[in-house]
Amino acid sequence: MTKYEVPENLGIEQKVYSKWLSQKADSLRKRNKKKDGLKCGSTGEYKGAIHKAVMKSVGVDFYIGEKLDWSLLCKYNSEDARKGGVEYMKKFAKLPTVDHYDDRKNLNFKICSWIVNDSKNHMSYDEFVALCEKVLKHNKVLNEKHLI
């Protein structure tokens, strides 16, 4: 038995989940420390916070409610991405990843797809929602004017 049991609904092996969890915790901790100068916890604390977010996610993207493709964990390859470009990257749009929900000072994470996380970037939840509302509003205008 492991401290962070993979949720059954994800349909992946414990070994894959444990590897992903360790990699995410380590990379987020290092990035937070480097970019933001934060000293907000050990790798173990990051693992706990990420695992908690996974459990709450029930396998879906927090922001858009779509099912994530957990079978993609630990399959992304940087060399293949360089060779395959955009087409390769598109295959990983529903790859589960970890997003800082509010700020980098707290270990408050949400699980979302890679494409949503990339789109949200460094925005807060409210900023992201406001941007999405602008996109939808403008899309309606474009449709009404038959510009798309």
Summarize the structure in short.
The chain is mainly alpha-helical and 148 residues long. The protein is 53% helix and 7% strand. The model has no long low-confidence stretch (mean pLDDT 92).
Could you please describe the fold and organization of this structure?
There is one protein chain. The protein is mainly alpha-helical and 148 residues long. The chain has one domain (8-120). Helix content is 53%, strand content 7%. Strands 1-2 form a two-stranded antiparallel sheet. Helix 1 (14-36) packs across helix 2 (43-57). The model has no long low-confidence stretch (mean pLDDT 92).
Q: Based on helices, strands and strand pairing, what is the structural class?
A: mainly alpha
Number of strands: 2
Number of domains: 1
Number of helices, counting only DSSP H or I runs of 4 residues or more: 5
What is the C-alpha radius of gyration, as a whole number of Å?
17 Å
Helix content: 40-55%
Q: Can you write the helix and strand succession as a string?
A: HHHEEHH
Shape: globular
Which spans have pLDDT < 50 for at least 5 consecutive residues? Answer: none
Oligomer: single chain
Strand % is 5-15%
> Overall pLDDT, averaged?
92
Sheet with most strands: strand arrangement = 1-2
Q: Strand count, sense and closure of the main sheet?
A: 2 strands, antiparallel
How far do the termini sit from each other? 54 Å
